[in-house]
Amino acid sequence: MSENSNSGSKKLLIAVIALGLTTIILGILVIVQSQTVEEQTGSISGLEVEKLQLQTDLQDMLIQYDTVTVANEQLSAEITAQQEQIREMLKEIEKHKDDAYIISKLKKEATTLRDIMKGYLVTIDSLNTLNQDLIRDNEYLANELTDAKVKTQELESSKQNLESIVATGSILQTLEISAVGLRIRSNGTQKETNRANKTEIIRTCAKIGENRIAQSGKKEIYLRIISQNGIVLQSEANGNQQFNFNGVSGKYSVKRSFDYKNASTDVCVFFNIPEDLEVSEGNYIVEMYEGGALIGKTDFDLK
Asked: pTM of this prediction?
């Protein structure tokens, strides 16, 4: 083999080796570049997922806050502030959507906000439960108060009925009552008469019955002696003698006090016919009152 032939072979071998090394280097570069692209693509995809999850979580918190009803003013103000913070975080996510550090930081803040929200929801639930309990308690107390008012009204009504019964029961009653005209003899004694022109005194006697309910002590009896013309006999000098009975005010002929001890008592009341009063013939009605109530009634005739 000639010297030129050997030289050519060596050059060819060197060229082949160089080409192989170049191919290897290019292959390594391609592989490294591919890995770098894959890593960057994976990083971008993971960041996008985190951003979307964070946005979804924040939106979910806003929705939960919107669904609660809060009557407490302080708690309502705090929740409003939390909602505003969440909206600001959503703006920050859009502003720094390609910044993994900011997204990671916002994610931690979102976790804290969710824990705070859970605390608010527990508090709201407790307050709602308490309010429901208070409403039930108020309804119960209102019913109790209504029942108490009804019972009080019933007791008051019973009391009034009892007082009415006692008042009615305490009214004195006459067991017997009679009236008659009297004339005075020359010797001063009295004699019954039915002659109008002879009558100088009208005597009314009554037996007042026993009454344990009535208050004992001094009692005052009023007599109304009424003529057939409906006129109450009175002296013209005492024409303004009036008393209250049956809810009205009217004239009376004569009154008398006596001591009542809750036992049966005989009482007589005398009406002295004044000189200025002319007694005519006819039927006379006598009404006896005590405590403003009619306790006896009778009549007599004068001829």
From this structure: 0.49
